[in-house]
């Protein structure tokens, strides 16, 4: 991967990154919002320290470790990617409570239209803010969006030291098994 300069990353601020999505997916993974590396490259979870791609493979969702640039291949496995908030920022703490709430409303509309079997929000804090579910925990949720069930997964950011790649893969694997029913 080409190394981007700080100026190139900053130029990606507020950019939108297209979803990797289609109707009737098995699982639609939902990040918080695109980081600057994702916005600069156009590839979801592109930051080198992000563990999304390794965990997706370790959990059995993909048969091999994929690169962010191969994101469209996810569709062949019945998987997709979207975000709670569309605009790119350097850090999730740059997002306002209103952006999370509006993002949750727009996400629910998108899920209603696309009808995935599962919506998997990666980040319990983002899920709580977007859907006003203050007591939500990692795992399957009571909430549904139409016929779509909801699962909250740990945030794969390298900054989330509470979860190792292995413990994340176990939680992702629980969703994988549930999504195969």
TrEMBL record:
<feature type="domain" description="Uracil-DNA glycosylase-like">
    <location>
        <begin position="18"/>
        <end position="179"/>
    </location>
</feature>
<dbReference type="GO" id="GO:0040029">
    <property type="term" value="P:epigenetic regulation of gene expression"/>
</dbReference>
<dbReference type="Pfam" id="PF03167">
    <property type="entry name" value="UDG"/>
</dbReference>
<dbReference type="GO" id="GO:0004844">
    <property type="term" value="F:uracil DNA N-glycosylase activity"/>
</dbReference>
<keyword id="KW-0378">Hydrolase</keyword>
<keyword id="KW-0805">Transcription regulation</keyword>
<keyword id="KW-0227">DNA damage</keyword>
<keyword id="KW-0234">DNA repair</keyword>
<dbReference type="GO" id="GO:0006285">
    <property type="term" value="P:base-excision repair, AP site formation"/>
</dbReference>
<keyword id="KW-0326">Glycosidase</keyword>
<dbReference type="GO" id="GO:0008263">
    <property type="term" value="F:pyrimidine-specific mismatch base pair DNA N-glycosylase activity"/>
</dbReference>
<keyword id="KW-0010">Activator</keyword>
<keyword id="KW-1017">Isopeptide bond</keyword>
<keyword id="KW-0832">Ubl conjugation</keyword>
<dbReference type="InterPro" id="IPR005122">
    <property type="entry name" value="Uracil-DNA_glycosylase-like"/>
</dbReference>
<keyword id="KW-0156">Chromatin regulator</keyword>
<dbReference type="InterPro" id="IPR036895">
    <property type="entry name" value="Uracil-DNA_glycosylase-like_sf"/>
</dbReference>
<protein>
    <submittedName>
        <fullName>G/U mismatch-specific DNA glycosylase</fullName>
        <ecNumber>3.2.2.28</ecNumber>
    </submittedName>
</protein>
<dbReference type="GO" id="GO:0003677">
    <property type="term" value="F:DNA binding"/>
</dbReference>
<dbReference type="InterPro" id="IPR015637">
    <property type="entry name" value="MUG/TDG"/>
</dbReference>
<keyword id="KW-0804">Transcription</keyword>
């Amino acid at each position: 991967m080409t190394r981007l300069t700080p100026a190139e990353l900053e130029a990606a601020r507020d950019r939108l990154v297209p979803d990797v999505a289609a109707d009737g997916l098995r699982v639609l993974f939902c990040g918080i919002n695109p980081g600057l590396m994702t916005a600069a490259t156009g590839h979801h979870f592109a930051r080198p320290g992000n563990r999304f791609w390794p965990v997706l493979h370790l959990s059995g969702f993909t048969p091999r470790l994929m690169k962010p640039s191969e994101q469209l291949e996810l569709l062949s496995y019945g998987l997709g990617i979207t975000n709670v908030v569309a605009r790119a920022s350097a850090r999730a703490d740059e997002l306002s409570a209103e952006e999370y709430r509006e993002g949750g409303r727009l996400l629910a509309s998108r899920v209603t239209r696309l009808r995935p079997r599962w919506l998997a929000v990666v980040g319990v804090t983002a899920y709580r803010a977007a859907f006003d579910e203050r007591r939500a925990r990692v795992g399957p949720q009571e909430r549904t969006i139409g016929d779509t069930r909801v699962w909250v997964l740990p945030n794969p950011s390298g900054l989330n030291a509470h979860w190792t790649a292995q413990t994340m893969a176990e939680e992702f694997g629980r969703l994988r098994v549930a999504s195969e029913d």
